Amino acid sequence: MKYNINLFGYNVDCDLKVENEGLRIEIPEDNQNSLKQYLIRVLPKYGREASNDSSLEELVKLSIDAEKTLEGRMVEPKLKLPYEFQPEIKEKLIEAAALQEMSATQLLIRIIEKKYQEIIG
After folding, report:
1. Sign of the CA dihedral running 13, 114, 61, 57
2. Which residues 6+ apart lie within 8 Å of 49 measured at CB?
3. pTM confidence score
4. Among 2, 4, 9, which residue's Cα sits nearest to residue 70?
5. CA–CA separation, 23 vs 79, rounded Å?
C-alpha cells in the first residue's frame, strides 16, 4: 500500500507491507536519497555534523538523537524563494501542497530534489 510518512520533519512516500501480522515499511531508493539530502541539510541546524559521506544509517541515528534531545520533531528549514509565480500556478502549487499536508515551499523543495536525483543519479 502506498503511503506518505513524516520522518524527521520530511514527508516520504513509502510502501506499507503487512505480512503475518507484521508491518514493514519500504522506502524506494530515490526517496531514500531525497531523505538523505534533507537530513544532510537539516542536521547541522540541530548541532549534528553531517556530510555527503555520511551513510543513511548514520544520518537516521543522528536524527533520532536530535529529536530525543529536542523532545519534539525536527523541521525543515524555511526558505523564502525570490520568485513570482503566475496566480494560477501559485494556486495549483498551494492546492497540491495542501493535499499532501505540507507547505508550498516544502513541495517545491521536494520536486526540485526528485528532479535533481533523476538528473544526477
Report:
1. positive
2. 43
3. 0.68
4. 9
5. 35
